[in-house]
Amino acid sequence: MGDTVNNEGTQKKSFFNGLKAEFSKIVWPDKDTITKETIAVMSSAVALGLITALLDLIIKFGLSFIL
């Protein structure tokens, strides 16, 4: 019948070569950028938590006042 070509080894090498090429394109941020972004995320999380707690307190007070 028909013969098949086994090019599995070539596909794996091509995949890893492509992976290595793409990985070399990554630009990692410096320490100052990471510090600033971490501070921004943490302060946003704290602010959102405080807003949520304040809204919860207001709603709880309103419901207890109504009931």
UniProtKB/TrEMBL annotation:
Main location class: membrane
Designated name of the protein: Protein translocase subunit SecE
Pfam families xref list: SecE (PF00584)
Family of the protein in this entry: Belongs to the SecE/SEC61-gamma family.
Keyword entries, A-Z: Cell membrane, Membrane, Protein transport, Translocation, Transmembrane, Transmembrane helix, Transport
TM regions (residue ranges): 39-59
Role: Essential subunit of the Sec protein translocation channel SecYEG. Clamps together the 2 halves of SecY. May contact the channel plug during translocation.
Gene name of this polypeptide: secE
InterPro entries assigned to the protein according to its UniProt record, in alphabetical order: SecE_bac (IPR005807), SecE_sf (IPR038379), Translocase_SecE/Sec61-g (IPR001901)
Membrane topology field: Single-pass membrane protein
Protein origin, superkingdom: Bacteria
UniProt-annotated location(s): Cell membrane; Membrane
NCBIfam families (UniProt xref): secE_bact
Subunit: Component of the Sec protein translocase complex. Heterotrimer consisting of SecY, SecE and SecG subunits. The heterotrimers can form oligomers, although 1 heterotrimer is thought to be able to translocate proteins. Interacts with the ribosome. Interacts with SecDF, and other proteins may be involved. Interacts with SecA.
